[in-house]
Amino acid sequence: MTYFSGIKKVRFEGKDSENPFSFKHYNSKEVVMGKTMEEHLRFAVAYWHTLTGDGSDPFGSGTMIRQWNHLSGMELAKIRVEAAFEFFEKLGVPFFCFHDRDIAPEGDNLRETNKNLDEIIGMIKGHLSTSDVRLLWNTANMFTNPRFVHGAATSNNADVFAYAAAQVKKGLETAKELGSENYVFWGGREGYESLLNTDLEFELDNLARFYHMAVDYAKEIGYTGQFLIEPKPKEPTKHQYDFDAATAISFLQKYDLQNHFKLNIEANHATLAGHTFEHELRVARANGMLGSIDANQGDLLLGWDTDEFPTDLYAVTLAMYEILENDGLGKGGVNFDAKVRRTSFEAEDLFLSHIAGMDTFARGLKVAAKMKENRFFDSIIEERYKSFKEGIGLEITSGKANFKSLEEYALSNEKIENASGRIEFIKSRINDYIF
To answer: What is the pTM assigned to this prediction?
Structure first.
C-alpha cells in the first residue's frame, strides 16, 4: 500500500523548473567547498511533526488529512512506519529522528510500553536494512505523560527519576540497535515553575547525576553515538535549566560533562531565548560544542514555539556560515523540527514544506560558501581588530602589558580615534551575495 500515491520521487530540476515537487537549489550530488550538498547538510525528517502531527492547537482540533486518521494504538503505529519510509525515500532525505513515544504508544505499564516499542523497532530495523535512510538521532519523550508534571531527571519524586532512567536506558539500547548517530536530551520539563518550592541546586545536581549515568551506560553497552543537549529557555516549563547555549555549556563544564556532550541548536529556541540563530551557533562553535541543528523558524510576532519551516534566506545563510566555520556538523545534521501550518492540511503539503526548507538551506550553503571563499567576514574582522596586531595592542595580546605599562601609554596618548563599524554597509553587501 502507498500513502503518498500522487507523489513521485522528488528530484533536482533547477531554478527554472515549474514543477512544485522538485528541488530548485538542492542538488544532493553538487560539490560545494569539497563536499556534496548531501554531506554538508545531512537533512533529517522529524517523525513527530511529519507523521504524528495532526494540526491541533489550544483552540481547535486536528485538521490534517491523513490516510491513517481512522486508526489507533499499535495498528496506527505500524502504518506510520510504512508511511514514514515511503515519505523519506520519495523526498530523498538521508536521515530521520524520533522520540520513543512518537513511534509506539505507551501501555498500561513500563513493561508493556517496552514491548510495544520493541515491536515497532523491529519494523524500523527491517526497513533500515533495505533503505539508504539512517537514524540521525532518537530521544525520550519525558514531558507528555502526567507523571512528568514536576520534571523527569529534575523531579522532586524519586520514583519519577527512576522511571526516566529506565526510559533513557531503553532509548540508548534502541540507539545502538538502530545505529543512531546521536542521542538527544531535550529537557522539556527540566526546569521550574516557581522558585518558592524549588531546590534549584539539588535539581541541577540530580540532572548531572542522570547524565553521568547515561554516559556510563552508553559505555557499558558499547554505544558510540554523540550525546547532544538541546537548549530551550521556556515552554512548557516557565524557566528551563538548559535556557540557551551559554547556560547549557556552563552546566556541562560545572559537572565535568563537557567531554561527553555537544549541543543541538534549534532556531526557534534561539528566538525564545532572545537570541538570533547565528548567535547560538556562534556561542556553541566558539566553545567547541556545536554538534547538530534543528532547522525551523519562529514567528517574531508570537511568543511561543511555532516551529515553522525555514524559508528566511538571510538567517539561513548566516547559520550556514557558522556551520562552515565549524567545519561541518560531524555526526550531526539538519533536522527539520518543523510542522506544516494548520491550514496546510493536505498530505502533499508535507513534501512542499520540506522542499522549501531544503532549497532554502541549499541556497544558504552556496551563499555562505561564496562569502567564506572570498574571506568576506574574515576581512571585516581583521580590519576591525587590527590595532591588536601591532604596538600597544600586540603587547596586550602577547601578555607583555600590565596596568602600569598601559597607564603610561594612556597618559602619553593624547587622542583616541575610533573607526566606523559600517554595519549598514556590511548588511548591504550580504544582500548582494544573496541576490
So the answer is: 0.96
